[in-house]
Design brief:
This protein has three helices and nine strands, in the order E-E-H-E-E-E-E-H-E-H-E-E. With 141 residues, it is of the alpha/beta class. The chain folds into two domains: 2-41, no CATH class; 51-134, Nucleotidyltransferase, domain 5 (2-Layer Sandwich), CATH 3.30.420. A five-stranded mixed sheet has the order 6-5-4-7-8, covered by helices on one side. Strands 1-2 form a two-stranded antiparallel sheet. A two-stranded parallel sheet has the order 3-9.
Length: 141
């Protein structure tokens, strides 16, 4: 509360103006706190990636599936393959055509980092066209 001193009267008159400077300071501090805290709050968001409701794309006549099982074993089609032998097995299946799309399927329990390692192996082998396969979920009305 502000007080105006007037030497002519013995009564002190009140000034009816609000000092907004402290209010603005508090708002700016809160703004900074929320700007810093908002990106950190998204770290613990649970993400369930195995199903999608995207429009189904046409599949090739003979798609080449690379499957990653829950125990991190790899299969090309139905044939097991090691991570070291992945490049040679892909060359054999595709006939050296690096433009062929590889359909990557992974178990729901496979760690995201492990899946990225498999994708990096595909990329280092020269296969850049990778499609992630998921379960089809019912479309929303």
């Amino acid at each position: 509360m502000a007080v105006r001193l007037d030497h002519g009267d013995d009564d002190l008159a009140e000034v009816h103006e609000i000092n907004v400077t402290p209010f603005i300071d508090v708002i700016l501090v809160l703004l900074i706190v929320f700007m810093i805290a908002a990106p950190l709050a998204t770290v613990d968001v649970p993400v369930d990636l195995p199903s999608a409701n995207a429009e189904q794309q046409p599949r090739p006549t003979e798609p080449l599936y690379l499957s990653v099982k829950s125990d991190m074993s790899l299969l090309i089609g139905e044939e097991p393959v090691t991570e070291e032998g992945l490049r040679a097995a892909l060359e054999e299946k595709t006939g050296g055509d690096r433009e062929q799309r590889i359909f990557l399927r992974a178990d729901k329990t496979v760690d995201y980092g492990d899946l990225m390692n498999v994708m990096n192996s595909l990329r280092s082998a020269g296969y850049l066209k990778i499609a992630l396969v998921s379960l089809e979920s019912p479309s929303a009305p």
